[in-house]
Amino acid sequence: MTLLKATSLSHSFDYPLFEDVSLSLNAGESMAIVGVSGSGKSTLMHILSSLLHPLKGNVELFGNDIYSMDDKSLVKLRRNDLGMIYQSHYLFKGFSAYENLEVATLLSGEVIDPTLLKRLGIDQVINQKVTELSGGQQQRVSIARVMSKKPRLIFADEPTGNLDHSTALEVMEIFDDYLRTHQAALVLVTHDEALAKRCTHVYRMQDHSLKEV
Ligand SMILES: Nc1ncnc2c1ncn2[C@@H]1O[C@H](COP(=O)(O)OP(=O)(O)OP(=O)(O)O)[C@@H](O)[C@H]1O
Ligand SMILES: [Mg+2]
Question: What is the CATH classification number for the domain harbouring 182?
Fold first, then answer.
C-alpha cells in the first residue's frame, strides 16, 4: 500500500532548489534523503509533510491530494496520522518531558509506552523540566512524543544529530521495529550515510534533483 506519493515537485526561494522530484513510499518502508547542507532537504520534507505548498507538483498522503484538501481535514490528518520530528525540537519549555508526551497522546487518544521511554534511555529523566535536559535528551523526548502518537507516517529531519553513534543506532532500531509492527513508513533526512543505508531507499539531493542511489 502506498502511503506517500509525490509527483513532479519543484520549488525555489531566491534561486531554484529542485525540479521534477517524484517519489513514492509504501507501508513498512523507509526512505533516507541525503545531500549537502542547503540543497533543499528540509524544504522537500516540509512539502511532503503538508507544511509548505510546492511551486509545482502534488503530494498524496494515504491517497489524498493534501494541497487540495480543506483545512479541517488537513489538521485532522496531521494530528492523527503524521509524526514530525524537526531539526530544532519544539517541546513545551515550561513542561516536564512526560507532560510533553501527554499533550500528544491526549490529542491522538493513545497511551505512553514505558518500554519506549526505557529503550530511548529517558525513563529516568521523564519528570524533569525540558529546560533541565541535555540537547540529546530533548531530542529523544521529541522522538518519544512523536512515536507515542502512533502515526502512520513519520517525517524525521536529522533526528539523531545530537546523539552519539550507539544511541543513534538504537533510535534507528526503534524506528525499524515501529514500521514493521504498525505498517507505517519513515522519511528520514540525515547527514549520516551509515544510518541512511539502513533505510529501504536512499535518495540524494544533488544538482537540483533527487536521485535514488
Ligand atoms: N522560508 C524560506 N525563505 C527563503 N529561503 C529559504 C527558506 N527556507 C529555506 N530557504 C533556503 O533554501 C535553501 C535550502 O534550505 P533547506 O533548509 O531546505 O536545506 P537543507 O538541505 O535542509 O540544509 P541542512 O542540511 O543545512 O539542514 C537554503 O539556501 C535556505 O536559505
Ligand atoms: Mg535541513
Answer: 3.40.50.300
